[in-house]
Amino acid sequence: MTSAASRAALAELRERLNAMLPQLSDSRFSWLPLVGGHAGNRYQELAGELYAAAGLLAGQPRLRRALGDPSTDASARGELARTLFTGKVGDVALDLIADAVSLRWSSPWDLPDALEIIADDTLLAAAEQDGQLDTVEDELFRFERILANSGELTAALDEAGMPAERRVALLDSLVGQKVHPITRQLLEHAVTSGRRPTLLLAIDDLLQASAARRERSVARVLSAAELTSEQTERLAAALSRLYGREINVRTAVDDSVQGGLVVRVGDEVIDGSVASRLAAARAAFAG
Fold it and tell me: Which of 29, 140, 178, 281 has the most crowded CB, counting CB atoms within 10 A?
């Protein structure tokens, strides 16, 4: 989503989502069970409805153009969406879908993409409400590291020609019940959505969105040996001073590092590993 108009529309849609999420604690939603005394399942239900709506629009070109065409009347698009989705999704999802199609998107494709993004946001909000956002972030990061170290596995999960059920089955064989249900739902959608370029990029987007919820950034740190909690805290403090904002550190062991650290914050990489210094020395010697 590169255009200024679509980015502005997405920001507005996210604001509307945040304003509507408290409605999920309303008595109208009492038929949905609570998780740990909170509205986790209700948020997950909403996310599922938004994912389904995005999938429908992605698979129906004429409908996508009708609802995402910025040259048509916005209120008419909203009414059409209500007609199509009434009775198929809950009240909050219906309002969000109608709001989404009433906004101005530079491309009709940006509409289903935006619905997927706010569905992700809904799941992250559920994790935050239940005090599990750190757990979900950590599980996403560790799965990202598994993929980064296995090109074959990543290719299989990204294989567009593989039926979605097989990709989900492969995902289940890897994570099963080992991760939080919200992590599982986020990953399942990432591997089945045709709108995610790669699973690694999808996880990166999720980690950035999770960090943004708490107005901080995420640093991915690779080391040859596991860092202690004290080392991790010192590194987080140093990075926070360096970048002038709170940095949340996620660590993983990578044998290829050999020694030192490789730190990635957004698109910036700080490579202080022994491996990189050896490579630079070899290159200089060869030159």
Answer: 140
